[in-house]
Amino acid sequence: FKGGDTCEYLLSSGRFLGEKVWQPHSCMMHKYKNSEAKNCLIDKHVVFIGDSRIRQLFYSFIKLINPQVKEEGIKHGNIPFEDKSASIKVDFLWYPEVNGSMRQRIKSWTEGFVAKPHIIVVGAATWSIKIHNGSNEALAQYKINITSIAPLLEKLAISSDVYWVLQDPVYEDMLSESRKMITNEKIDAYNEAAVRILNSSSRNSKAKVKVFSVSKLIAQETIMKSADGLHLPESSRDTNAMILMNVYCNKIMKPIDGSCCQPQPPLTLIQKIAFCFFTLSIFGYLIISLIHRNNYRKNKSCTDLESGEEKKPAISTPNVSTLEMLLHCFCKLGLIMTYFYLCDRANLFMKENKFYTHSSFFIPIVYILVLGVFYTENTKETKVLNREQTDEWKGWMQLVILIYHISGASTFLPVYMHIRVLVAAYLFQTGYGHFSYFWIKGDFGVYRVCQVLFRLNFLVVVLCIVMDRPYQFYYFVPLVTVWFMIIYATLAVWPQIVQKKANGNCLWHFGLLLKLICLLTCIYFLSYSQGTFEKIFSFWPLSKCFELNGNVYEWWFRWKLDRYVVFHGMLFAFIYLALQKHQMISEGKGDPLFSNRVSNVLLFISIVSFLTYSIWASSCKNKTECNELHPSVSVVQILAFILIRNIPGYVRSVYSSFFAWFGKISLELFICQYHIWLAADTKGILVLIPGYPMFNVLVSTFIFVCVAHEISQITNDLAQIVVPKDNSTLLKRLLCIAGFFSGLHFFSAMQDQSRH
């Protein structure tokens, strides 16, 4: 199903999500703020021509520019509006009937010496029905008058946006006696006449007068709430005004969450190069596969006629197999990236806005929790936060975050605050995992660092190229990458203190604690010194990575939101490993972590702490205030969960293989959702199968999970090739990678220059 002409869909079809949220068919509608409306309409002249219904639309439209406007104009007269700060003029012209007077006014704009309005919104019919008591003669005259006006509107539509607003249905039971002749049957007859004449008079598709018929659909759902049965309730006319704003402004402002009426973005130079690279990889892989297949046939075991001995087939050289594996990975990746581009950059598939309801979030949560419990298995080891358990933890958190994103639950503050804890828990695991590795292994080699950085960043770098998005757009990966480098620098800088060294002398433990205190001090200083933080990350080349929309504020906000949790993870790892070393905890199968009495007390405190945090998060009234407290208190629920999960021996000895499977591809799931599960860079929902929301989610989810799993395998395979263990080979690869990023920067600079 193609996205097609989304402007036509926006003007003609859609449905209500809930009571007040209008969802156009196939595309997303942006909710314009006053500042955005002014920027779009700067130096523009907009004219509304018609009766009292058009006057309602006029007022809703100008309230998008200035919400303080009051409906105090003359009821049966012209009403001017001007915003001098943006040089915007919006006029309402009182022409309640389609007659000679309206024709004369429209004709005046077609004459060369008169300035034409940039937007013209016309509509009238109910007065003709009322004055002439719904007579057939009035309808015939209406057809004649529209026929004479249509060529003029078409001429204006060559240089201006012209909209003909069809008449909304009425609620006949509520109409006053003087309006009883205005029936829905009459209104339908007038609308049919207008549509037939306007469409038939259109010679040039580019100059077509746009028929604004969507208001009929909106009115059908809401006219019962009308005060007089004729005029729409305020929420409905506000929706119509917002649709008008989207039709005109989306192609100018290009909002991410406004896909209606937006043209497909042109391919950038870097995207074209990426397309050529992936195409060559696909052809290269096919050629090598054919060559290998022919060689295999030739070198099949056969009997030597002279000696009577069987010949062994020739063995392929490692270089050839490595090249084939490399091309195979890029071939698959090229096909996957094509799907990414088609889903979220080409106007091929439909996109829709999110709409939150409690059931759309909590029912899937209950469903996956039941599935997770069903797939319970025994762990291979029973240590605290063992591999299976951390994979399980990542898995269920990632699934909850995915449901949170697709359901639009960020609008519900209690859910938002709990999801913030899940994101913090990921970073807590980053601090715990990397600290544990460096502390126990003492491996600070370049190979380890490059492996981690490659696995974290490979997919994001490819998406930055293919989807034309900055690195900071995928904020979680930069966040994890920077924290990994901070952990590495903290432990690798002189003196390097590891477990083996600390076991020989207890004073080294104090040295490590001193390092952690220094780290905490730096974090505290940077979190309250935005200027210093922004200066550090505004230096080239860091600015190329961390700028979003021309500044690093978004990066500072993301970093500050969970600034202490990685430190908490490192500190927890240090305390846990120290307790483990001194045999102060019991990690046997089925054994409680501490003595029964201590375990029971800690378990009770943990449950109370967990519930206390949830009660506090659920009572949040202000997102800004709660975000300020979050960095300091999120660790409470994280630690409470760890203790509840690990103190009872039985609970520690089992895990959910269902959640653990998703945990192994959690990073890929988090990143891929941006473009092939959600849409418009996470602002909307991808629609592969319109009209069947549940079936659409099932199909898109299946493809999305398969793609994430495949990308995880591709990343692992490429990591072995691109980041070898041999230091001299690794150095050569690093030089190649440096050359690649230099070229990327060069082409990016060329792109920026051509855009300016």
Strand content: 5-15%
Biggest β-sheet strands, sense, barrel: 6 strands, mixed
Q: Name the assembly state.
A: single chain
Let me know the average pLDDT: 91
Domain Cas1p 10 TM acyl transferase: 253-734
Family: Belongs to the PC-esterase family. CASD1 subfamily.
Domain NXPE C-terminal: 22-72
Transmembrane segments: 269-291, 325-343, 355-375, 396-417, 452-468, 474-494, 506-526, 561-579, 600-617, 659-679, 685-709, 730-750
Q: Could you please describe the fold and organization of this structure?
A:
It comes from Leptocoma aspasia. Residues 22-72 form the NXPE C-terminal domain. Residues 253-734 form the Cas1p 10 TM acyl transferase domain. It is a multi-pass membrane protein. This is N-acetylneuraminate (7)9-O-acetyltransferase. By secondary structure, this protein is an alpha/beta fold. The protein folds into three domains: 11-253, Rossmann fold (3-Layer(aba) Sandwich), CATH 3.40.50; 322-352 and 372-381 and 396-723, no CATH class; 726-755. The chain contains 29 helices and 15 strands. The strands form five sheets. A six-stranded mixed beta sheet has the order 4-5-3-6-7-8, with helices on both faces.
Helix and strand arrangement:
Elements: H1 6-12, E1 14-17, E2 21-24, H2 34-41, E3 45-50, H3 52-65, E4 79-83, E5 88-94, H4 100-110, E6 119-123, H5 126-131, H6 136-156, E7 161-165, H7 184-200, E8 210-212, H8 214-222, H9 234-253, H10 269-298, E9 302-303, E10 310-311, H11 318-344, E11 350-353, H12 358-374, E12 376-378, H13 387-407, H14 413-441, H15 446-466, H16 476-492, H17 499-504, H18 507-527, H19 530-537, H20 542-546, H21 553-561, H22 565-581, H23 596-618, H24 623-646, H25 649-652, E13 654-656, H26 657-664, H27 666-676, E14 678-679, E15 684-687, H28 693-722, H29 727-755
Parallel strand pairs: 3-5, 3-6, 6-7, 7-8
Antiparallel strand pairs: 1-2, 4-5, 9-10, 11-15, 12-13, 14-15
Keywords: Acyltransferase, Glycoprotein, Golgi apparatus, Membrane, Transferase, Transmembrane, Transmembrane helix
InterPro entries: Cas1_AcylTrans_dom (IPR012419), NXPE4_C (IPR057106)
Domain Cas1p 10 TM acyl transferase: 253-734
